[in-house]
Every structure is written in C-alpha cells, then in structure tokens.
Specification:
By secondary structure, this protein is α+β, with helices and mostly antiparallel strands. It has helices spanning about 60-70, 110-120, 125-140, 155-170, 185-205, 215-220, 240-245, 250-255, 345-350; strands spanning about 20-35, 35-45, 50-55, 75-80, 85, 95-100, 175-180, 205-210, 225-230, 230-235, 255-270, 270-275, 280-285, 295-300, 310-320, 325-335, 335-345, 355-360, 370. The chain has two domains: about 15-95 and about 170-250, Rossmann fold, CATH 3.40.50; about 255-370, OB fold (Dihydrolipoamide Acetyltransferase, E2P) (Beta Barrel), CATH 2.40.50. The strands form four sheets. It has a six-stranded mixed β-sheet, with helices on both faces.
Length: about 375
C-alpha cells in the first residue's frame, strides 16, 4: 500500500495550496449527449492530496465530470491531465485512477479476500505478493479478520469498506467516488464520513467525491466545486462557500438561507443600508455598491436570534419545530413575507408561543450582500 502520510489519520498541518502539485487538471471540458449539453466549458485544478468534492443537484453534470476524469465518458471537447499526463487516448484501466460507485458491485460468490484481490489478479500481479497487499488493504479499512466472509454476511457499512479496500489495493493516484454513501442510513453515513476522511489523510491520495448532499461535502472536503446546469458556479473551501456565497443559487443550495431583494439606499464604507419593499436591513460587504443598485441580502437561519442587533425584524410566530440543538422558528413579518430562524435550544425557552409577537435581530457582519 501507499506509504501513510500520517498513520493516526489526524489533520495534516496547514499548507499553501498554491505550492502543491496539480493532480487533476481539467480544461475547457464539454460533453453533449444528443442535443443536451451536460458539461459547458468546465475548467478546474485539483491539487495532490486534496479531498475535493463536486457538489450540486441531480442533473448538474457532476457525475459526468467524474466519469470523464475516470475515462468512462469521452468528452466532446476539452482536455484532462492526471499527474501531468494527457488522458485523451488512455482507457479507464490505463489511468492512475480507481472508482467507487454507489452500487458497490461486490461479487457475491467471492469472499472478501477474493473481492479485494480481484483487480490484482486481473493485472497478473505476482501471486506471492497478493496476500500481503490484500491484508494491508483490509487492515487500512479496519476489516482485519473479515477476509473469509462472504459479502452477504456483512453490514452495509462493512460492504462499503470492502469496496474501498478493493479500490485502494491498486494504489491509485486519484480515487473517484460517485455518491458511494447514498444507500446507507444516516448513522452509517456519518460514520463513513469519518472513515473516508481518515483514509484520505492516512494515504495522502487525491479523493474526488461526488455528492448532492451539502452536509457531506462540507464535513469532508478541503475544497468544493458547486455545480449547476453544467458549469461550476463557485469553487472554494467549505467556509468560503458557506460564508461568502457567490451567487443566489449557491446561497440557497448550501445551507438554509433567507433572501431579501432590494436596493442600496445608503453606503458607508463597507456597510450598506438596503431597502427591501420598505424593510430596512443593514449589512457589511467587500463589494463596491452604488446607491440605488439592486442587491440581495443573504441571511442564514442561524444568524437570526433574540439578542439585539443592527437590524430588528418584528413579526408573529407562525411555526416552531424542535431540531435537537436548535428550534426552527417561522415568523410572519407582514402579509407578504416570512423569515426563518434557528434558535439554539437554550434560548428557545424564551420564544413566544405560536401566534405571539416576536423580535428577531441580526448583526450587519452576519449578513452577506449579492449584487443582483
């Protein structure tokens, strides 16, 4: 197996990403099925050792992009380089990649050992070395002692680990994961989040992960490419994408968000006052805004609270939902508009009952401004 970067799986020290070699380079990639253009001039660089996620709704092109990197789809135009080599004429089995699908496709008639060893045998790997590599791969995914079991004797999470061992035993430079956790229940998925991140940090391989679940992408990724309608609409760290969404789509797709459309009526340095149909909202922005310019104020649910802030919103509670660590509150501000707030459970006891008045507030630094 690949020499571990950190056998403990603990977070790697901070690094300047600009100095890390590029593992996967995609340039001007287009893919058309019949008359449907699924990928539209997509370009991106994935650094060596990154956990990189392609995030977006169904049909946005993320799986087609992943399959193109793996060689399972041929682009209509554009280039893909892996470890500096052009992949245009190289079939899937000749690329330094391996892929894990949502449907694990374990061989039901083979033991765990033989499932993991299958790829090595196909490559005519020396028989006397197969046992050591399979044993090391099973140890890596914490399945020591499971080698003689059949797939149907394993839980869903254990089957997922066998699929990972089978992919990793060939020591791919890039591991491609196409929504591999979609068939697991919530608790198993959460466990596998930790397991995937541990494996990636231990091995130091490049992981490219496709998901429509923003929670998965946020919890595991070094960087995320948010896709919509065949294009990358924003690329950045989880924090950048959540805290500074570049578009209305990103603001709504990643996290839970209140949106207020309006116009800037006052600008004072990095702080602006926005009029949204008579509602006055104060927000901070790094973007140059002109008075009268149409803008959208982005306010996450959890940034609205009961404490005094720069903007107060008066309304009536119309719904309360207990979420464990927080209570989701829906408030009517007027006859045309509602907002939603996630109040921590400790503060929720102070919330008025449904039908009672309430004042929700937020600080200008917690609001983001999109130029319409």
């Amino acid at each position: 197996m690949t020499t571990p970067v950190d056998p403990s799986g603990s977070p790697a020290p901070a690094r300047d990403i600009a100095t890390v070699p590029i593992s996967v380079s995609v340039r001007n990639l287009c893919k058309t099925f019949d008359t449907n253009q699924v990928l539209k001039d997509v370009s991106l660089d994935i650094r060596r050792g990154e956990f990189f996620s392609l995030l977006g709704p169904s049909g946005c092109g993320k799986t087609t992009l992943l399959r193109s990197i793996g060689g399972f789809e041929m682009p209509s135009s554009g280039e893909i380089h892996i470890d500096g080599k052009d992949m245009q004429a190289i079939p899937p089995y000749g690329r330094p990649t391996n892929m894990i699908f949502q449907q694990l496709a374990l061989f039901p008639h083979l033991t765990v050992f033989e499932n993991v060893a299958f790829g090595l045998r196909v490559q005519n790997y020396p028989k006397d070395k197969i046992a050591a590599k399979v044993t090391a791969a099973l140890a890596l995914v914490r399945l020591d002692g499971f080698a003689k079991r059949m797939p149907q004797q394993l839980s869903g999470g254990q089957q997922q680990r066998v699929a990972m061992a089978r992919a990793l035993v060939n020591e791919p430079s890039v591991l491609l994961l196409d929504e591999p956790l979609g068939a697991l229940d919530l608790q198993l998925r959460l466990q596998m989040h930790e397991e995937l991140r541990r494996l990636q940090r231990t091995l130091g391989n490049t992981f490219v992960f496709v998901t429509h679940d923003q929670g998965e992408a946020m919890s595991m990724s070094d960087r995320i490419a948010v896709m919509n309608a065949g294009v990358i609409v924003q690329l950045g760290t989880p924090e950048e994408i959540y805290e500074r969404p570049a578009t209305r789509f990103v603001a709504q797709f990643v996290g839970h968000t209140n949106l207020f459309d309006g116009k800037a009526v006052q600008v004072n340095g990095g702080r602006i006052l926005v009029d949204s149909d008579g509602l006055r909202l104060t927000a901070e922005t790094r973007t140059k805004i002109e008075i009268g310019q149409p803008v959208t104020v982005v306010l996450r649910y959890e940034r609205l609270g009961l404490e005094p802030g720069d903007t107060a919103l008066n309304g009536t509670v119309v719904e309360r939902m207990y979420l464990g660590g927080s209570v989701r509150v829906i408030v009517d501000l007027d006859s045309r508009r509602r907002v939603t707030a996630d109040i921590t459970s400790g503060d929720a006891a102070n919330l008025p009952a449904i039908g009672s008045p309430v004042i929700l507030s937020f600080s200008a630094r917690d609001a983001r401004v999109l130029v319409a």
